[in-house]
Amino acid sequence: MRLQRKTAILRMLAATLMLSVAACSTAQYDAPIKSFKDAADAAAKSTAEFNAVLADVTLNYALQNAASNPAQNHLQREENDCGAYDPAKQVRCRAYFELSSSVDGRTVKLERDDYTAPLQGMVDILEATQEYATNLLAVEQANTAEDVNNSVDSIEASLIRIAKAANKEEFNDQIPRAAGEAVKWAFGQYIESVKFDALRKATFAATSPLSRAQLAFKEMERSAKIALSSSALEAATDTMEKMDPHSESSVRTTLAAQNAYDDLLTAPLSSMFDNLVEAHENLAKALNEESHLSLRQTLAKLGDIQKQAETLEKIANDLRDAVKKQTTT
After folding, report:
1. What one-character-per-residue DSSP string does 295-314 give?
2. Is the CB of residue 298 less than 8 Å from the CB of residue 36?
3. Structure pTM?
4. Who has the most CB within 10 Å: 9, 175, 279, 289?
């Protein structure tokens, strides 16, 4: 009798757990999580390419101006840098361009970051977000509770990386636990419940670091455009003034300079990351509330990101072609 009673209790427990599994299936989240990962990949790739091309364009512009008019444009180094007598005490050796703008007379200072990696901060944030998205997908596709736990540990490392990239100066490691002990259930075989719980907690934990990164991203874009727009504007103005209307090559060069300035002003950097963060917020809401509307909104935003990434890649390719034409003509 006691054995029968024990068996009945176990059956009821098993039935309850199976119902819980059915209610918490992650299958419907496979597509949006995979799409979120693909969108993060596309955003990171296009921004990295745009960063590299902008660096080439900026350095090319600075070198041409320094060589063509050395009386007004100089390659300088920071005062007290580059000491050779006691290199053990020397901290930096920082070279920069000081260029005189013919448009408004202002002096433009292009430091190493401006002519080697003007968007590096944004690239770092997107690469960290890409890493987070990859680990989130690994949770969804995990087959064992152990795999989930390992992926959750990787997610927490990704969140720390996002927070560091957003603010290196004031970084603190008070990142919410992505899942913690909650996913380490004794009933490891009920993997769907484990995965669902991990995804819900991980996306909730990522909300704050991504929001902070979103604010930092906007400021990074603003600073980069301030540093780069003067040179782009001057190049656009200078080529227009010096254009030979009878020379196809001159007209092409002038057109490329105008388009390069327009591309810098309109490049969808912050808006692309805004959409990525909003898509993630919708995904977190869908997991928390099991909302089909939030899932649809997630997929809509992710589609926008793919288009913006394609636009950014086209801008990068156009700029790269323009630089090649200018150096070969």
Report:
1. HHHHHHHHHHHHHHHHHHHH
2. yes
3. 0.81
4. 279
